[in-house]
Amino acid sequence: MSSKAFRRKLDIRNGRVDLSHGSGGRAMAHLIAEVFHDSFSNEWLARGNDQAAFDVAAGRMVMTTDGYVISPLFFPGGNIGSLAVHGTINDVAMAGARPLYLSASFIIEEGFALADLKKIADAMGAAAREAGVPIVTGDTKVVERGKADGVFISTTGVGVVAAGLDLSAEKARVGDRVLVSGTLGDHGIAVMSVRENMTFETDLMSDSAALHELVAAMVEAGGAGIRVMRDPTRGGLAATLNELAQQSRVGFRIEEEAIPVRPAVAAACELLGLDPLNVANEGKLVAIVAPEAACDLLTAMRAHPLGRDAVDIGQVVEDDHRFVQMTTSFGGGRIVDWLSGEQLPRIC
Amino acid sequence: MKYVDEYRDGNVARVLADVIASAVEESRSYRFMEFCGGHTHAISRYGLEDLLPNNIRMIHGPGCPVCVLPAGRIDMAILLAERPNVTLCVYGDLMRVPGSQGSSLLRAKARGADVRMVYSTRDATRIAEQDPNREEEFFAIGFETTTPPTPPAIRLAGKKQLTNFTIFCNHVLTPPAIQNILESPDIRDLGRVEIDGFIGPAHVSTVIGTRPYEFFAEEFGKPVVISGFEPLDVMQSILMLVRQVNDDRHDVENQYIRAVTRDGNLRAKTEVADIFELRDQFEWRGLGLVPYSGLRLKKAYAAFDAERRFEMPEISAADNPACECGAILRGVKKPVDCKLFGTVCTPETPMGSCMVSSEGACAAHWTYGRFRDMEQRRAS
Q1: Are the beta carbons of B1 and A267 separated by less than 8 Å?
Q2: Which residues are paired to B139 by β-bridges?
Q3: Is B305 helix (H, G, I), strand (E, B) or coil?
Q4: Which tens digit of pLDDT belongs to each residue from B161-189?
């Protein structure tokens, strides 16, 4: 529906979302038109259907969905909107797939500022356009004040995988190499730096980014040698490697000195008593690759701006206990474990 | 990271490891207790045990303020937090400490108690200011290091007339606990564990100085080295202890000369002495009642003392009988000697508090070092 159908423009600067914006009536249509269609603008949304129809090439499809409830909604290097686009594109891309389309569903708390909603929608639109993956369908609900935390976003993504490519979590083999695409912990620390009760000054930005182009470059350079890829989001590298160890029934041996961590991240972790290996990333990937393919893949990663700092951090080893073990910078050994519950700062 | 990386240099560590290896005498064994959980964490986190000769054994002592807090104090805090119109402010790692019968502040929060995680005493007074109609309690906990921030909070609350602010005081003292360990029958009479030296916590000594340790180094004939928390600090302190043992000396030595003096921080000590007084005794998890080892607010500050103001009943709750936290904290047993370790007691479901904080002996061993148990089992 074009916004010309409405007599007055939404007061985006000062207005707030109220329950009528989720009621299915004119107010909702108005909100969708002036906020979402305006920000996402594409031919599928323009047709105004409850679904998007599109052609796909024959082959294997990939589908994923993710909910975004981040607090605070705005952080250095992005906001919940750009994150909701990047995160879902990355989940599709980790299958070695080319992401094609996204859907987006919004649960908005009554009273949420329209200006903030527009800012979020603009960031989503920009992220989707930049990635070349349009948001082709969506949904809006408004809940009473106190029943959500500003806005929650769910996005679903679909994509296609090239013939012959079948990356999967159970495919890591003893001797495979572990590659990471860049510095760890940037996103988590950037977000923590602006949390209400914890504000500290840092120039650090979230690494939130769509990784599908990097993945495409890797697939082209040696897709057959990639066993599995994953983006180490919540729980960080530690959680990702522990998951893969369980799923592939192997262990990992990584080298602390090889793991890239920015000084600002290391310093913040030091201050807060956190381990960068447990901290979230939103623009990094971990690839478990056949040893003979590692060199070519690293070269391809480093040739891409999002993989510039890519490194080989270790290998897959045989281990009935599925431990992720790390040689420390001192040459000693230790386990890199899952996080237990939330990361809790230590008192001293 | 300037001023940190220097103390984490792997190349220096390897050199220091060689020096330690050549300093130890083969016929001797060196059993050193690091009192403080911060050292336990550094040892585990950097895998220092792999760099030490076999006849040096590190015994992880009781020095994690969260670990030594008995279940009863957690139960008392939960009762406090569950009162109507009460906000309880706590440091993060207290949230999961088990009280009795599987309770914890995290669970109390899930049931509706207003428990909030704070990062400083100032956060706590700020919350009291923001909501004058709610009673706001601060769970004050920690050794000599984390005690000095509490007096300014009390003074600020007095100045701003924050009549809704009180503290639940759980501050404890290091020297009485070390003395208690050395006097325990396990160690003194039964000789079940011989401790050849202590690594003392530098952050405590930045406040109290090194002097309080002189008495028992002399009395018990054990060397003490006050050590920083960076891994190279710990290694250097181990070397200093090895040399004292070799020379049959039992001095208090200061490795952390960059911040620790013999008399400590006089101003911090005065502030603490102005506001707090010694309790006759205080319960420690694993050690039981330790005389003159805990602090409480002086009578003049009773209005800020949650225990007095809310007439909180003392609760003493028994630990799980199978939990070996006590023996582990005293260095008599290792985490793997406990039947619960890694079976029902893991960081996700801690039974004893050694498993809660990352500084606890059990959690540090589980999180960083349990692969060694498997290796040992395989070797045997």
Answers
A1: yes
A2: B168
A3: strand
A4: 999 999 999 999 988 988 888 787 776 66
| CA–CA separation, A65 and A80 (whole Å) | 15
- The torsion angles phi and psi of B265, rounded to 5 degrees, stand at -95, 100
Domain for residue A341, yes or no? Answer: no
Are A130 and A237 in the same domain? no
Cβ distance A297 to A218 under 8 Å?
yes
Neighbours of A281 (CB within 10 A): 29
Cβ–Cβ below 8 Å for A332 and B50: yes
pLDDT in tens, B206-217: 999 999 999 879
The share of chain A scoring above pLDDT 70, in percent, equals: 95
Nearest to B255 by CA among B205, B220, B291: B205
Average pLDDT, chain A: 93
Q: Which residue of B has its CA nearest to A334?
A: B368
Residues B119-143 have pLDDT tens digits of 889 999 999 999 999 999 999 999 9
Contact B171, B215 (CB under 8 A): no
Instruction: Say yes or no to pLDDT of A311 above 50.
Output: yes
CB atoms within 10 A of CB A48: 12
- Tell how strand A78-79 and strand A74-75 pair up: antiparallel
DSSP state of A336: -
ipTM of the modeled complex: 0.81
Three-state DSSP class for A18?
coil
Q: Residues A62, A142: one domain?
A: yes
Interchain proximity B65–A328, CB inside 8 Å: no
Task: Tell me if A346 is assigned to some domain.
Answer: no
Count of CB pairs separated by less than 8 Å, A with B: 107
Q: Which CATH superfamily is domain B5-61+194-254 in?
A: HypD, alpha/beta domain 1 (3.40.50.11750)
SS3 readout for B25-50: CCCCCEEEEEEEHHHHHHHHHCCHHH
* First-last CA distance in chain A: 58
B180: which 2 tokens? 């208690």
Closest CA of chain A from B33, distance in Å: 19
Q: Is the pTM of this model over 0.95?
A: no
For residues A158 and B327, the model is more confident at A158
The string of pLDDT tens digits covering residues A43-100 is 999 998 999 999 988 889 999 999 999 989 999 999 999 999 999 999 999 999 999 9
The answer, for A71 touching chain B at a CB cutoff of 8 Å, is: no
The domain in which residue A140 lies consists of 9-161
The answer to whether the CB of A111 falls within 8 A of the CB of A147 is: no
Distance CA B313, CA A318 (A): 55
Nearest to residue B34, comparing CAs of B248, B246, B300, B241?
B241
